[in-house]
Amino acid sequence: MLIESLPAAATPPPAPARPSSFAIEVPDALLARARAGERAPLEQIYRRFERPVFTLALRICGEREAAADVLQDTMLKVIARIGDFRGRGGSPFWGWLRQIAVNEALMHLRRGRRQAGELPDDGHEPADERALPPPAAADAALLQRALARLPATTRGVLWLYHAEGYTHEEIAALMQRTPSFSKSQLARGTRRLRALLQIEEHDHG
Q: Start and end of every RNA polymerase sigma-70 region domain (predicted)?
C-alpha cells in the first residue's frame, strides 16, 4: 500500500525502501522455457504478475476498465519481447516487466490527455516528501477513494514515488517532464491527499 511506504514521522532518517509489489522471483529455468515459447511458463508468469500490474495500472489510470486494458497490453508485450530479456547488469526480470507496465499505463494517460490533469501551484512551500498522511490512510478503502479524486498525473507521481520507489529523475523521464515537475506534483498531491483523507475519515467515521 502507498501509505505503508512512508515513515512514521516527518523528520527521522529515511526508512529503507519498501519492496515493490512486482518484486517476485522468477526462476531462470522458468524464464528459459518462456523465452523458448512454451505456453505453460508464460501462463505462470502472467498469473504471478497479474495482480501487481493491474494494481499499478488502476492507481495510475484510476479506472478498472483502463487498468484491464493496460494489463492486457502489458502482458502481450511481455510475451512478444520476453526473448529480448537478458538481465544485463543483474537487472531482475520483475523490474523489466514493471517498466513495460508503467510505460503502458502512462501511454494510456497520454492518449486521454484531457482526463490526465495535474494539480496547479497552490502557493504553499514544498512539503516534506516523506510526511505521513492522517490515520485514515491506514484504511485501504478510504485511501482508494481519496486517490481516485486526485488528477491522474498527480496520482501517478505519488504512486510511482511512494509505492514503487522511483526517483524524481526516473519519473520525469517516464512522464517526459522535468524532475522539478515530479517534485512539485508530489508535494501538492501529498497536501491534497491529506485533505481528502481527512474528509473521507469524517464522512465515514
A: 45-114
